[in-house]
Amino acid sequence: MAGIKDESVWELNMKILVVGNGGREHALAWKLGNDSTEPEIFCTPGNAGTAALGTNLSYGATDLDGIRQWCLDNQPGLVVIGPEAPLCAGLADILEAEGFRVFGPNQAAAELEGSKQFAKEVMKAAGVPTSAYETFTDPDAACEYVRERGAPIVIKADGLAAGKGVTVAETVEQAESAIRDALEGNAFGDAGNRVVIEDFLVGEEASILALIDGENVVM
Fold first, then answer.
1. Same domain, residue pair 27 and 97
2. pTM, to two decimals
């Protein structure tokens, strides 16, 4: 994004709001603030690092009404949403409906991140290779499946669990413990009311980001 010079999109000294409070949002705020157009950076809720780059606001990342009202009152030229939770809650949709430019997927697209079961169903329907899986809400049925498949095996809370909802179980016993923690122990709250159990695959992991506008793709 930095370096855009089209005045209709990237305005001199415009306000930019970054939603989130992690290291990712600090990096985004730093990069955006270094643009030659010298934007005014706001972060909500931000962190100690972002406070040195601009102005931290008091709204939580999922305070949809508060963020919407701040945008209406302050008219940022761009809103960048980092965390999954506000995206899955529809913050991008709310702000776009008010006419704001938003960097982040809409609620429907964010469901790919918000539900591992949904993501697997989309991959299957689209013919994207993915590991064999089953989903469960019943812990006994899930444990029986694990005993049939064997270990190593991967247990995932279906919903958003702050990056802590995945267990790579080396033994059947570890897998059963992870299943019962999620489905019976409420370890991940509502995010763990369903688990996705996948075959364990060996290989290198890579994350690739693609930016699209409906016609063009930038990797």
1. yes
2. 0.87
Give the end of a domain, one of 113, 144, 179.
113
Q: Which amino acid is at 62?
A: T
Q: Tell me what the pLDDT averaged over the chain comes to.
A: 93
Residue 162 in domain: yes
pLDDT confidence band for 219 (50 / 70 / 90): confident
Q: How many domains does the chain have?
A: 2
Q: In the prediction, which pLDDT does 8 show? A: 52
Inter-CA distances, 117 with 120, 156, 172, Å: 5, 10, 22
Q: 36 is in which domain, residue-wise? A: 15-113
Q: What pLDDT score does 214 carry?
A: 82
End-of-domain residue from the set 84, 113, 142: 113
User: Residue 43 and residue 23: Cα distance in Å, rounded?
Assistant: 12
Q: Are the C-beta atoms of 62 and 76 separated by less than 8 Å?
A: no
| pLDDT (0 to 100) of residue 3 | 34
Q: Are 187 and 181 in contact (CB under 8 A)?
A: yes
pLDDT computed for residue 9 by the predictor:
56
Q: 136 and 57 in one domain?
A: no
Dist. CA 161–CA 94, nearest whole Å: 24
Buried b (16+ CB within 10 A) or exposed e, 130-158: eeebbbbeebeebbebbeebebbbbbbbb
